[in-house]
Amino acid sequence: MKNPSQKNVIERAKTALEKKATYASDIDLSIFNFPEYSEEEQNIEDFPPEIQNIFRATGMEIDEKKRSASFIMVNHSIVYEKINQTFNGQLEIMGISDAIKKYPEILEKYLWKLISPDKDKYTAWAALHECEGYFIRVFKDQKISRPIQSCLLTKDNLAVQNVHNIIVMEEGSSAHIISGCTVHPNVKEGLHLGMTEMYLGEDSNLTFTMIHNWADEFAVRPRTVVDVGKSARFINNYVLTKPAKSIQSYPSILLSGDNSNASSNSIIYGLGDSEIDIGTYIELIGKDSKGEIISRSVAKDNSVVNARGHLHARTNNSFAHLDCRGILMSDDATMYSVPELTATKAPKARLSHEAAIGPIADEEIEYLMSRGLTKDKAISMITNGFLDVKLLELPEQLESYIKKMIEATTEESL
Amino acid sequence: MLKLENISVEVGNKKLLHNINLHIKKGTTHILLGPNGSGKSTLLKTIIGMPKFKITTGSIYFNGIDITDKTLDERARMGIGLMFQNPPAVKGVTLEDLCEAIKNKDHKTPTLSYARALNLTNHIDRNVNDGFSGGEVKRSEVMQIKCQEPKLVLLDEPESGVDLDNIELIGKVIHSIIQSHKAKKEGRSGIIVTHVGYILKYLSATEGHIMTNGRLILHGDPKVLFNDIKKHGFMKKGKRL
Among A116, B148, B197, B204, which residue's Cβ finds the most Cβ atoms within 10 Å? Predict the structure, then answer.
């Protein structure tokens, strides 16, 4: 889609084209190509088996029986979108370009309204270039009992995928969105820019689960802002079990409504030479808002894992906790845990954090070995248990799938 | 089944065991008595091969094979099992998952039936030993040993921190592991470290050993040794020697 940004957005973006991001290494945007819109629409089951497997690895179900809707984007072409008949009239899912054509007010109401186009060079670039992504709206009071699934695939090497997603949860609605991002096996190097703006209306409930699989030389710069309305609940889950060159993500969750609450959970496996800088910022604005950040990271090989979390209370009686733990499993890996608490003009806010980095205790490994388990098996059991998928509060099937994915990564990396 | 020949052990640079000789025959149960710090737990941990305990002299044979240089997990897979006195909690690993991982392929008894027998049905989906009471920890240990089915069971103070009801339960299950008809037929053996001897109500010991200052100083009928210690204590026993 042609760059949809409004004039003021473009002007602000232009001022930030050279503005480096606060965290992680700087990416040279000039080396990436913008791919052609050459992908044709096709049914999910018509994709070659190896591509179907790539979709599956991001939590996607090919037979869609346990999903309410599906969306697949390859480079910037939307190749598949479907709502399961049972859910017709309860939600809508479409490409952002089609959505803007259908509802021009999106430009005024949602696009670039939460994310600042001049935040850094990545938002600026995204605002000034063509983009595509999904628009998902769950209608008032609709409870979507099965997850909505999406997968954004980068197909060409050295390509940039410029994504802009918008999610609108109307009053009283609830849903679970599984948002997968991945690359074709031919892709070694590339860049994913993902702008996602989510609007949760009063009493709505959204679980947003991201399962990402990248390539060794791939860079990822998502920018996400979520506005959580009165008595609404937002759960953000992030799972990363494959290496990438550099990922820097620091979504902001704004608890603007009274009694709103949010949990942000991440399970991160730092592998190979990956640079991973992931955090969550929760701002407690509405009265009695509550927030929680839980992070479990394992750093292996030469990886660098920065796990951040910032709780910012702007109102009295707000309550939030941050729990950030990591295991460093290599002499050459680095882990940096940064918990931050801020209370601004809110003397009755209660914020707390616990952060820990440490090895797996020899005593625990030896205990399991004394039962006949090999050292590798003992380490993998403890590691898999540490990266506890139950934290994500997922449907049983998806939980079991992610558990297996983590176990497979542990096995491969031993 | 197990033969220790002239075993000396160091931890760090401190010598803890001196020239231990011990022979455990198939189908026998031995008790090991001695004051705190005399080296009883060290001996059990040396037999199973905990890495901290370095053997400086001597050899250990298990079923005729020299296991002195075998690793901890190799010895466990060969058939040596240790019921720890104070096992660590293992966060992230549930008791059920551990039991399933311990069992070999031919082990048909469901973990749940062990959990029922040991009053642990509410604990099997909890992290191993995490927040367990003293009695629950011991029952968790016995449950793991049931799953492991070792030929030689090493019990390190199975009664410590346990109330009498739990001792009865644990005693009966340990009896089934090493002294039931099936266990006898299979020639299972045990070494039990005990201070109070409550466990002996449920198990019959065939031989007793007294240990002081890292040395095995006396061997004999377990009942005689135990009664003697009850009357005179270890020091008197030591002096008389």
Answer: B148
Rounded mean pLDDT, A277-304: 96
Q: How far is CA B137 from CA A58, B80, B89, B160, in A?
A: 40, 20, 9, 11
Element (DSSP H or E) covering residue A111: none
- In sequence order, the 6+-apart residues with CB closer than 8 A to the CB of B136 are B120, B123, B129
CA A58: distance to chain centroid?
A: 12
CA atoms within 13 A on the CB side of A169: 30
Nearest Cα of chain A lies from the Cα of B72 at a distance, in angstroms, of: 6
With beta carbons under 8 A apart, name residues in chain B contacting A364: 88, 90
Per-residue pLDDT at B241 exceeds 60:
no
Written as six digits, the tokens of B193 are: 């470290």
Q: A373 and B50 in contact by Cβ < 8 A?
A: no
Q: Taking all residues of chain A, what is their mean pLDDT, rounded to a whole number?
A: 94
Which amino acid, one-letter code, is at B19? Answer: N
Q: For residues A220 and A212, what is the distance between their CA atoms, to the nearest angstrom?
A: 10
**CB spacing of B102 vs A367 below 8 angstroms:** no
**B82:A377 CB<8 A:** no
d(CA A182, CA A184): 7
Q: For the whole model, what pTM was predicted?
A: 0.86
Distance CA B101, CA B86 (A): 21
Q: Return the pLDDT at B235.
A: 60
The label of the residue with tokens 């938002």 reads A123
For residue A233, how far is the Cα from the chain centroid?
Answer: 17
Q: CB of A365 within 8 A of CB of A375? A: yes
pLDDT digits (tens, 9 = 90+) for A3-32: 777 889 999 999 999 999 999 999 999 999
Q: CA torsion sign, A24 to A382 to A212 to A194? A: negative
The tens digit of pLDDT for each residue in B45-60 reads: 999 999 999 999 999 9
Report how far apart, in Å, the C-alpha atoms of A26 and of each of A21, A197, A248, A302, B141 are: 7, 24, 10, 19, 53
